[in-house]
Amino acid sequence: QTRKGRPTMRKGTILAVDDERDLLTLVKYILEREGYRVLCAADGMECLERARREKPDMILLDVMLPGIDGHSVCRTLKNMAETASIPVVMFSARPKTLGLFEGGRAGADDYLQKPFSRMELLEMARNFIGGGSSTAWKVDSSVGELSPEAPGKMREAWMGVIAFTLMELLVVVS
137 near 105, Cβ under 8 Å? Predict the structure, then answer.
């Protein structure tokens, strides 16, 4: 494959999972133009099967899927020895702080809020496939609590959840 007459080197393989075909087509187009190999799945079961069989370098996983939801798929991937080390980036229209919190509890490595830009998508792919971690936060998924090594992004997510809860309480009280 060439891009503007130059050979394109494959940068890695990404498994993109969403039940919205148009979004999958767009994600695949963006990532393939940058040299990534993109596999697609339309539901949680297909994601689990393809992840085991193909061993992608990263999984881009929608939260809302038919059948098994994205959080359950993520927990399963992180509990299977053959897929546990694959970075999982969850995406949804939910607010970023809430998505970070919920995704972290499921074992996700990061979160993209829909709609996301081309640059946000490419940055996420570069961060994980290039060997780095975009946020590197950790949550004890068995109890949903911050682990001692959780850095700023997860604390920021917790603070957003706490602030939102406090604002709701103030509305109820007043």
Answer: no
